[in-house]
Design a protein that fits this description.
The protein is an alpha/beta fold. The chain has a single domain, classed as 3-Layer(aba) Sandwich (Rossmann fold), CATH 3.40.50. It has ten helices and eight strands. Strands 1, 2, 3, 4, 5, 6, 7 and 8 form an eight-stranded mixed β-sheet that branches. Helix 8 packs across helix 9. The mean pLDDT is about 90.
């Protein structure tokens, strides 16, 4: 608990992001990642493998943009820093513990940005990726397990508002997911997409008690890789069940889209 408090107090964070709970959520994620390190390690290895495949045959490696950089554990940041001239890590919060770990990488730049694409009134405000997509030097963009988190950002904002006319999360969530996918389509460089798509609640007998769609009903093309991620092992979310996510990875998401459309 003391470590979490220290990280919370030492992390710079915009007031709006703090008010919406982004800082608390980031600290909670860091704490959970520590408790679930063994369960999450295979997920990280799969993510790294997809990102490394995405960067392997690029003709140029000027700038890479990581969207939803978070704890910077699901992307091989040291390898990205060694391979690219500039690495942009973009997220609503960059924890002090993460900043400390990145100090040695002089070409890593932290960009504080809420990627949900919401205006202060809680409504979609346009493409938050447009400024990055307009940069001709971006040779690779990685959407790092962000897609499923975007509807959750809206839920946080809706909970903080008292506007009766604010759309319900189940209505606006799919719109925000579609907006992120459309934003990714605007990049000229390669797009690597990592995302969890479904959450299953599983009991100790292996029975699936509940299944939740995490990406608003959107259908994605055939992935280059798919795996399961035990997000909450037994005892983390409850003593008699665990939360298991289905995850997909795309080495070149926009190419996968074109192939799917042509089929």
């Amino acid at each position: 608990m003391l470590a979490e408090v220290l990280v919370y107090l030492t992390t710079p964070c915009p007031t709006a992001h703090r008010r919406l709970g982004h800082l608390k959520a980031a600290v909670d994620l860091w704490s959970r990642a520590g408790r679930c390190a063994a369960a999450w390690a295979p997920h990280y290895r799969q993510c790294w493998s997809v990102v490394e495949r995405a960067m392997a045959d690029l003709p140029r490696r000027r700038k890479v943009v990581v969207l939803g950089s978070g704890l910077v554990r699901d992307v091989p940041v040291a390898r990205l820093a060694a391979a690219f001239e500039t690495v942009l890590l973009v997220d609503a919060v960059h924890l002090s513990i993460v900043r400390l770990r990145l100090v040695r990488h002089r070409n890593v730049v932290l960009v504080t940005r809420d990627l949900a694409g919401l205006a202060s009134d809680g409504r979609p405000s346009g493409d938050p990726l447009a400024e990055f997509a307009a940069d001709p030097e971006v040779d690779l963009v990685v959407s790092a397990n962000l897609l499923s988190q975007i509807p959750l950002a809206y839920e946080d904002l809706a909970a903080a508002h008292t506007i009766a006319t604010l759309p319900q999360p189940d209505a606006i969530g799919p719109v925000l997911v579609a907006g992120h996918l459309a934003g990714l389509a605007g990049f000229r460089g390669r797009v690597c997409l990592l995302t969890d798509t479904e959450q299953r609640t599983v009991d100790r007998a292996g029975r699936v008690l509940e299944t939740v769609d995490l990406i608003g009903g959107h259908r994605l093309p055939v992935p280059d890789a798919c795996w399961t991620w035990t997000l909450a092992p037994f005892g983390e979310d409850g003593p008699e069940h665990e939360l298991v996510h289905a995850v997909v990875g795309y080495v070149d998401f926009n190419r996968a889209l074109r192939t799917s459309d042509a089929a």
